[in-house]
């Protein structure tokens, strides 16, 4: 790969950062009883860990780049093991919880940035952007639930120093992060559609192999309190959980009311009840875990990135703030 092409690819990546940094209306999950606003980074998300594969399907990681400001996220760069002219990158940027409409605005902004990147001083023609296309994949949460993630892909063709190249990009929201993949290859080696389909498949594999967890005020555990047995529905009760032989658990907005026998259950069973209660109360956020669950397994052939976000100084917070409340809508 020529130096000019590598610089172009990096320019595309950095140019696509802007749209996701715009303040977006929040649909953040939170505690119904707490109305104070908290900063997004340094509050709602304080720490993130990303464990990703160093090699996958013929692609080998070359290195990482932590962008400034920290809200701009981190990128991992890859090269094709058999063809150095083919390069790829993956960019992670905290997005939090947003509505479907706001997420579509972020994707549109990423597409516009991808389209508007100039070809460089040696270009012979303007980049031509292809139509957007949707693709989907399934993810599994840490408590065993499955959900569908929808991504968007697009491609373009450009000229640089008299050579033709094709590029493809995929964008999706996963575990509180906006993740963008990009591939660049000589046009003589592949078509735009073939490169885009290759990137969609690679994105699907990478999502399933990459662990992304965060903690902060997005983690909203519930108190467990012993309650006297009874059949009457309590004021504010949101749902019930039947436990065979042990009675009924009442799910309140911020706590679980359990029979005395359940209060003495082993820790693992109590944790399972906690997750079930948080899900029913709208307090369980995909990608957010308790601080004690932040340690991901980093096996052979994998690498871990640790991101820590400090709370912004008073009066200098340019990062969107979240008003904590029960989540009625939002993606993820």
Key features?
332 residues; 20% helix; 4-stranded mixed sheet; alpha+beta; 9-stranded antiparallel sheet; single chain
Order of helices and strands: HEEEEEEHEEEEEHEEEEEHHEE
Counted by DSSP, the helix tally is 5
- Terminal Cα span: 38 Å
Mean pLDDT comes to 78
Classify the helix fraction into a percent range.
10-25%
| Structural class label | alpha+beta
How would a textbook summarize the main sheet? Answer: 9 strands, antiparallel
Described by the principal axes of the CA atoms, the overall outline is: elongated
Low-confidence stretches: 1-35, 315-332
Describe the model:
With 332 residues, the protein is an alpha+beta fold. The protein contains 5 helices and 18 strands. A hairpin with a 3-residue loop joins strand 14 (239-243) and strand 15.
Write the layout of secondary structure elements.
Layout: H1 3-15, E1 37-39, E2 47-53, E3 55-56, E4 59-66, E5 74-80, E6 87-94, H2 100-116, E7 128-129, E8 133-140, E9 146-160, E10 163-174, E11 177-186, H3 192-209, E12 211-215, E13 223-226, E14 239-243, E15 247-251, E16 255-258, H4 260-263, H5 267-280, E17 302-308, E18 321-323
Parallel strand pairs: 13-16
Antiparallel strand pairs: 1-18, 2-12, 2-17, 3-4, 4-5, 5-6, 6-11, 7-9, 8-9, 9-10, 10-11, 14-15, 15-16
């Amino acid at each position: 790969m020529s130096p000019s092409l590598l610089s172009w690819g990096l320019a595309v990546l950095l140019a696509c950062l802007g749209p996701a940094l715009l303040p977006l209306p929040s649909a953040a999950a939170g505690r119904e009883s707490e109305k104070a606003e908290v900063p997004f980074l340094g509050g709602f998300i304080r720490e993130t860990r990303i464990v990703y594969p160093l090699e996958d399907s013929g692609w080998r990681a070359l290195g990482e780049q932590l962008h400034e400001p920290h809200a701009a996220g981190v990128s991992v760069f890859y090269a094709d093991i058999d063809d150095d002219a083919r390069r790829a990158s993956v960019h992670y940027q905290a997005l939090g919880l947003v509505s479907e409409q706001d997420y579509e605005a972020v994707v549109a902004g990423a597409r516009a940035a991808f389209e508007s990147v100039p070809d460089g001083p040696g270009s012979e023609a303007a980049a031509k952007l292809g139509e957007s296309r949707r693709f989907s994949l399934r993810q599994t949460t840490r408590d065993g639930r499955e959900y569908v993630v929808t991504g968007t892909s697009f491609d373009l063709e450009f000229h640089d120093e008299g050579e033709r190249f094709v590029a493809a990009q995929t964008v999706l929201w996963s575990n509180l992060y906006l993740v963008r993949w990009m591939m660049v290859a000589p046009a003589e080696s592949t078509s735009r559609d073939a490169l885009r389909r290759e990137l969609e498949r690679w994105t699907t594999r990478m999502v399933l192999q990459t662990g992304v967890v965060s903690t902060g005020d997005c983690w909203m555990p519930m108190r467990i309190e012993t309650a006297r047995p009874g059949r009457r529905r309590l004021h504010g009760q949101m749902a019930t959980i039947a436990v065979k032989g042990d009675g009924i658990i009442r799910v309140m907005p911020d706590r679980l009311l359990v029979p005395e026998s359940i209060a003495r259950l082993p820790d693992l069973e109590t944790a399972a009840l906690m997750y079930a209660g948080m899900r029913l109360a709208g307090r369980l956020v995909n990608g957010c875990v308790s601080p004690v669950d932040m340690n991901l397994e980093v096996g052979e052939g994998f690498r871990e990135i640790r991101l820590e976000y400090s709370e912004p100084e008073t009066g200098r917070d340019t990062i969107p703030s979240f008003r904590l409340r029960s989540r009625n809508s939002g993606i993820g």
